[in-house]
Structures are given as C-alpha cells and as structure tokens.
C-alpha cells in the first residue's frame, strides 16, 4: 500500500512538473486560442451584441499570437536593474535578455548612430518608464545618441517630428504611436527615405514599417476575464473604464475580456471611456456607482483609470457593496508600483502586468536594422512579440492552468513608490 | 446702485433656470436627489467653481486669464516637491504662494508691460505649465501621507464634507470682497470705463493686479483640493479648464468687455454646470455626446438670459 | 533717410526677425538649410497659417472664433460619414474594410467647404442675432463639433488613402509643397480683398468703431457674419489639406489648433480689439513662428523647453509691438 501511495505521489509530481514545463508564454497563447470566438458564438447574447458593436474582432484578428523571437523563454527573475535616466526611479527591466545586444560600442565602432525617439505624454508614469528603458539602452553603447521628443498627444505634431527626423537624417526612429491611422503616412515616408522605424506597444498603420514591438494586450484582457470567471462564478454587474475608443489598447483588452466572459451571465452596466486619466475615471466611476447600486465588478484597461476608480469607490464607501455584501471586484492591467501595492492591500483583486519596459527592445531592434543595412547582421523580425506575463494576485492561485504571482514576487513594477 | 439691481435681475433668472433644471433632473433620474449624489456634484464642480471666482474678478476688471489650468498644475507641483517634508502646512503654504505669485506675474505683464491679457495669459499658460513639468520631471507626487492636505478633500466636519465647507466659505468671502469692499467696487469701475479710470492710473493698475493675483490664489486652492481628492499631484492637471471656467463665468453674467458679473451669478452658474454634467453622467451619456448637449444648453441659456434681460426692459 | 530705415524696420520688423531666425538656423545646424527641412518648414506653416488668416478676419471686427480647431476635421468627417450613411441606404460602396474611404474626393472637398460656410453663418447668426458673445458662441460651437466628431466616427479613424485626395498633401510644384501654394495664394487674395475692395473698407470701419459704422449706414450685421464665414472657410480649406497630408480623419485630431492660430495672428500684430491688422500681418506671424519651430526641431530642443520659449516669445513680440503703437492697415 505504501508503494501505491508513493507511486501516486511520484506520478503527481511528474504531472505537476509537466504543467510547469509548458512555459507561461505558450500557456497563455493556448488559452487565447481556446477563447477566440465571433460574436455569434457568445452564449450570452447581450455580451455578443456589445462585442459586435464596438468592432473588437477586427483588432483581435489582426493581432499576432505567436511564439517569441529566437526561441526565447522568459521566466520571472530575468532582466537587468538600473536607475531610470529620465525619471530617476529604480527599474528592473524584465526583457533585457530578449534579442540581446552586447554592451559597449555597437556595429561600426568608428561611427556614431543617431536614433530619434518620439512618444507622447512624458508625464505619464507608464510612458516615462518606456522612455527610460529606451534611453538606458542607448546609454549602454557609447557610439549611440538618442533624441527624445514628446508630441503631447498631437498626432500631427508626431508626424512633423518624424519628418524632422528625416530631414536630420537620423539613422533610425523608435516611436510610440498613440493612434494607428494618422501615423501611417509619416512612417511610410521615413521608410521610403531608408530610415528604419520601430514602433513600440501600439501600432502604426504602415505596411512598410521595419519592426513592431508588440505588448501583450491580448493576455491582459484574457486573464482579467479568466480571473473573473474563477472568483465570481459567472455572474456579476460590470462597469468598464476603457481607453480611447478605436485604439488598439482599448479594443484588444476589452475584446479579449469579453471573449473570456462571453458565455456567462454577466451584465455590462456601464462602458465608459476614461482615456488613461485618473480624474476622468474617478468622476465617471463615481457617477456609475450612483446610477447603479448593484455594481459588483469594475474592469479597467489601465492603471491610472483603475486608481481613479478605486478612489471613487472608497470615497463613496462602496468597496463592499456588491450584491450579498461582497467586495466589488476590481480588475486592472498595468503593473505600476501603486496598483501592485493595492493588490497587496487587498483593494484591487488582480493586476495583469502590461509592462512599459519595452523601450530597450525597440532600440536594440532599431540598431539591428541599421546593422542589417550595413551588412553586419541579419534583420530582426518584423513583429517582435513580447512575452505574455502572468497575472498578479494577493495569494497564489492557479487559474486555468496559469500560476499567478504574488506582489512580493514581482520586481518589475514601474513608477514611483507607493506606501 | 443701479448696476447692482440689474445684476440681481439676471441672477434671479439664473436661479429660476437652476431650479427648473433641478426639477427636470429629479424627474429624469431618481438617483439625482440622493445626498451622496449632491455631495458628488459639489465636490466635482467646486474645483472649477473656485477658479471661476477668481476669473470672474479678472473679467469684471475687463481682462481674461487663460493660464488658470496651468497655474493650478504648477502651484500644486511646486508644493508637491516638498511632500517628503511630511508637513502639510509647508506644502499647502508653498502651493498657495506659488499660485498667488503666478497670478501676480500675469497682473504685472498686463499692467506695467501693457501686454493684452489674452496674449499674456496665452504665453504664461505655456510657460507656467512647462516650468512645472521641468521642475518635477513630469512626475506626479503623492501627498497621501499629509493628513491635513488630504483632509481638504476627504475630511468631514460632522456630516458635512470639508470641501463643501471650503466652497461655502470661499463663496461668502469672495461675495463680500467683490460686492461690498472698496477693492471690489473699484474692480467694476475700472472694468466698466477703462478710459475714465485711466485718469487715475494707479487705481487702474492696482485693481487689475489684485484681480489677477487673487485669481492665481484661487487656482492654487482649486488645484490643491483636486490633488487631495485624487491622492495625486499631477503636473498635467488642468488642461482645458480655462475655456470651461470662462463659460461658467460668462453664464454667471460676466462679460468679456468688463464691468459686469458677480460672484453670486458665478456660484449659480457653477451649480448649473455641475448639475448638467452630473445628470448627463447619470443618464449614461458618453463624454462626446455630452459635449454636444452642453454646447446646446449653453447657447440656450445665454439666449434666454439675453432675451429675458430685454423683456425686463 | 534715417526715418525711412526706421519706418522700414518698424513696418517689416517681423520679416526681419524671420530672416534672422533662418540665418541662425543655417549656421547652427547642418540640416536647417536643406531642401527637405525647408520644405517641411513651409509645409508645416500652411495649416496653422490658414487658420490664423481666418481668425484674423474675425479679430478685425473685434470678435473671436474658437471653433476653427474642431471645424478643421469636422468637414471631412461629416463628408465621409454622410456619404457612408447614404451609401447604406442607396446601396453604393463608400467604405471598404470598415473604415477605408474609397469614394469621391470631389465630394469630400465640396461637403467640407459647404460645411465651413454653414458653420460660419451659424456662428455669425448666433453672435449678431442671438446676441451671444462671440467667445461663448464659438466655444459652444467648438464643443459641439468636437463631440460630433466622435459621435459621427464612433471613435474610429477613417483612412483617406485615395490618390485623388492624397495628392494635395504630397505634391510639390517647383519644389514648393502644394499646401504652401494654397496658403500663400489665399493670403494674397485675402490681402487684395482687404486693401482694394469694399470688403476691406467695411471691415476696417466696423473694427475701428462699430457704433459709428452702424450710424453711417453700414450693414454691420452682414459684414460681421461674413467675417465669421471667411474664418470658417479658411478652416475648411485647412482641414482638407490637413487630412490629405495625414491621409486620415480621426476625432482626436486638431485639438488646440485654435489657440495656435490665435497666437500666430497676435504675434503678427493683428489686434484683438479690432481695427488693426491684415492678412499680411497674420502671414508674418505665421512665418516667424514657423521658422522658430523649425529651428527648435533642428536643435532637438526638448518639448517642454520648446513650449516655454514659444510662450516667452509670444509675450515678448507683442510687448515690443505695443511700444511701436502703430495704427492703420498694415
């Protein structure tokens, strides 16, 4: 009998070892594939109609769900630590070893390479961290100069800045486009002038772009949905704080979320676009709470929105006013130190990381493109997928085969310290 | 004296409009009259309302101030740099000082350097805000450990939220200043008749400087309460506030040509805008549709205002 | 002789500044005086320049127009969404793949221009017949158009990649961008109208002293409404060029353009209280600011520093201009 028990134990260990053997990235990709559906396939017809109305499918279909470049496997703990050159904050960047480039002078050591980096809203914690990693990467190579420009949310200005980079004959351009459509023509012009362009996180509508570094939007929305199914048992009244209508960031996350919850009995009470603004989310959530006294879930597509929503909930004393006296479940993406801390305190229920620490990958890809032009190395791929990151919860859980991470195990949170 | 009566007349119109709106609101959304909801309305709209007090004074004296949002952001950011000192008093004082100083600069530019206020404040709008960004590296500060600071938005005295008390106090203070003090009366004189008051040039200049300085102070107070409410001092706050606040002041009877307007009118106009915003949010209308509706409502109200005034004659 | 030179500099002070900036640029950056950069510089001036030109008409009659920013993209958005709507009813193809416009460029142009004229009339009527302050009227119009931009597009962008439309943004004639040609030609026409026709005489009269003009029998209402129409028309043209260059219309675009337009006009010397200024002045303001922006780009100046310098310059230029205290039509 003892032998049988030992045997069973042995087999159990074998199986659990297997479930760790499938890495996080592939695991989540498989879950994404499992949950993909058209609006007609939604068992909850109302959710299906909502899914159709905002046109999520176009974005979801166009998004690559593939394996990592070069067979890279990411595990928690990897990556470099440094002080952000722009923000002065300590950063641990998870993907420093992805598509690596050795420190020191790159490509032709006798030449100086100039990279133009253009983004928006350098006061936003997520975006300044993005720029931090880009500038840091450039600082590792003494013959690389980087020029940082902030277009302050004006797409036309970003287009003009790119035109200026072309006039200044920069060697490469790395960009963070707020919106896809208006950035198409300037990127095409840059590519036509033989300047490689790399986009980070969001996409630009330019078929000839050299490389797109893509974040894990799909994994965000999906994990928020899977978590919700796990803890809410398939029922709840949801209010949504979303990013700008028509942006990849909004459509991907909201769409993936709906795909995950689409077969269950949830009701969407409000869908609000609060556009990455803590203040807007605060006010909108406040009014939504006022209009609906049975809110049980708040879905947020960003950290700032979530923090604003949480403040509104606290000010109205509604944290535990879901039906049955339960806590309102707050779902978040964007692993800023603030939101991760809220998970630790038990105010937010799950934070799915969406790390801004991608800038380094973009700069490395840009340098490799320059190198490819000079015949020194092979071209990097056109689409660089970044590793899917597992969700962060207060206690360790296993949700649909994903082992969650606790706040203390996550060193990659960005932004200023929270107490 | 006659002017005061005329002002009261149009304020009565506004009050009537306000009550009609509220009645309308109660019918449309039952959640409206809820105590929490009313609190929320005041908490939300008071930030713009306090700035509107300052801006009303500037408009009475015949000028305009587009830099209000920037002053709010900068003054809070300035104070925010000292959050680690753990002294609410220090941070609050520095914030108010910074705002007052910016207002004073605006006043100087308009009076001594004779730059038209639209241009002056268009320039300072950019300068002040970006100075704030540079000072803080664009990063927000977090005053959550400063108890008194946070209490300005989150605290209660008895059952009444402190921000509401602050709003009521400021309303009373500014009403008294503008309507009954020498300074207040000189604002109207300077605003209504710029040529005649040029003869007493000192009064002209000092009235304008006082108006701008007080406006700057109002901006810093408003920004402070906003930051406390969100638990975050964001150097990016206040973008777009200037046009909304001007709309509130004009709705309240202020004229861009000067000499008209009152704090009472501004208070009512503030509440009207607050109620409209809240109502549209309770109805679940999207931000964008709301803008269209608010635009129509502003036009309708001003038309009613104008033709109501004419009818009285 | 000295007076002549003094006068020359006073009247064309800004032109002088423009050349000084270009000179500084040429000497401090190897990329400033290149074809690519100069083309960028003058092309970038076209849209804000047109807006400044339009706004200056309204300034001349002592009013203000804040709606020009939202109006810029409202025209093309209305055109696309209205045609898409008609296309659904009458069953002809307008949009492919959901948001790519694939129909007539002519329609875009005509609807945008007509929309501009209509909005201008509405602004004017509101101000003159509704007796609504122009600030409030055009502010409300700006908000309404901003909201409508989102409602009509459902927050999606429309791609306008038809070659019959995008040529406006990319064509160069004698190396000068088409957009700049449009801007300069419209400025010349406007200057001619203001200097040599009755339109100019009436508008200056009203701007100088509205009460007197009314007493003298001038149809003040008509001319002020016309000023608003001219402003909106310029904004529509700017909008067509803008969306052609970006090959997109998207609701969040063109935010804040009205303040830039006002800044350009004011720097050029167009007075806000009416009666002083001209299309030439708006042009001067535009080229000075345009050159400055190009200079900063070549220097790689950080955005925040750039904005501060721009703010300081706006104040300084107007301060210096006030000292000269010029009256009249230049």
Question: Which helices and strands, and how do they pair?
Answer:
The complex is a heterotrimer of chains A (419), B (313) and C (330).
Chain A: H1 2-21, H2 24-35, H3 45-53, H4 56-62, E1 80-83, E2 90-93, E3 113-119, H5 125-139, E4 144-150, H6 155-167, E5 172-175, H7 184-192, E6 197-200, E7 211-214, H8 217-232, E8 235-242, H9 248-261, E9 265-273, H10 278-291, E10 297-300, H11 303-315, E11 329-333, H12 337-345, E12 350-352, H13 359-373, E13 383-385, E14 398-399, E15 402-403
Parallel strand pairs in A: 3-4, 3-5, 5-6, 6-7, 7-13, 8-9, 8-10, 10-11, 11-12
Antiparallel strand pairs in A: 1-2, 14-15
Chain B: H1 2-28, H2 35-60, H3 68-80, H4 88-111, H5 117-136, H6 147-154, E1 156-157, E2 160-161, H7 162-180, H8 182-192, H9 194-198, H10 201-230, H11 241-251, H12 263-282, H13 287-312
Antiparallel strand pairs in B: 1-2
Chain C: H1 2-11, H2 13-28, H3 35-60, H4 68-90, E1 95-96, E2 100-101, H5 105-128, H6 134-153, E3 158-159, H7 163-170, E4 172-173, E5 176-177, H8 178-196, H9 198-208, H10 210-215, H11 220-246, E6 248-249, H12 257-268, H13 279-299, H14 303-324
Helix pairs in contact in C: 2-13, 3-8, 3-11, 3-12, 3-13, 4-5, 4-6, 4-11, 5-6, 5-11, 7-11, 8-9, 9-11, 12-13, 12-14
